[in-house]
Design a protein that fits this description.
The protein is mainly alpha-helical. It is 66% helix and 0% strand. The longest helix has 23 residues. It starts with a helix and ends in a 15-residue tail after the last helix.
């Protein structure tokens, strides 16, 4: 559950960054971390990518409504 939330937060950060790139040509991660090839930027890009892969699993999971028994 906690891993899902962390992954979703990272995916939202990535989506916002891509939105800024598309609308304004501003890569905020690169701007903050010293360029696209800076080690910190590459770590953040990698974490966002891994989070995206993790979130794919959310599409295929069974949902259990609180208060109902799992089938």
């Amino acid at each position: 559950m906690m891993m899902d939330r962390i992954a979703l937060i990272l995916v939202v950060i990535g989506a916002l960054n891509w939105g800024l790139i598309g609308l304004f040509g501003l890569d905020l991660v690169a701007f903050i971390c010293g360029g696209q090839m800076a080690v910190l930027s590459r770590i953040i890009y990698s974490l966002v990518g891994l989070a995206g892969l993790w979130c794919i699993s959310l599409l295929f999971r069974e949902r259990v409504v609180p208060g109902e028994a799992a089938v």
